[in-house]
Amino acid sequence: MKRLSMQLGLRIGLASALIVAMIGGLASCAGDQRVVGLNEFPAYPGEKHQSEVLNIQVIRDADSISLTNTTAQRFETTRVWLNQEFSYVVDGIDVGETIRIDLHEFRNRYGARFRAGGFFATQRPKNVVLAQFESDPDSQSLLGLVVVNGRVSR
After folding, report:
1. Which domain holds residue 139?
2. CA distances (Å), 106 to each of 9, 87, 110, in order?
């Protein structure tokens, strides 16, 4: 009898731990996920103006974007800005190349992720309304990109 009660207690304890872990995992998906203690996410360079718009199309597909470079110029490592708040560094984009970036990779200066949506999203996803390149941090200007479809397709 004592052995049966110990087994039952162990099973209840494991089941409780599993439920707590699942609830904690779901709760972490609920709001903005922040990275505490990291200073690698810069603030949007609001003092810079947009000098031109490049022929690089930005197309949203659910929780990612595709950038297609139809210019005659290769871009080396550059920071992509979305909505004057969120950024992500790409290694480069060749002439004619299309790259895909998961929108969850974009972070603001506080480390909060872009609200990209997805199956488990609890908040309405943000639209992509403005996309820019900051290819040279010492430059006084940003380069605009053409946002073709920035809305979440339903």
Report:
1. 49-149
2. 45, 5, 11
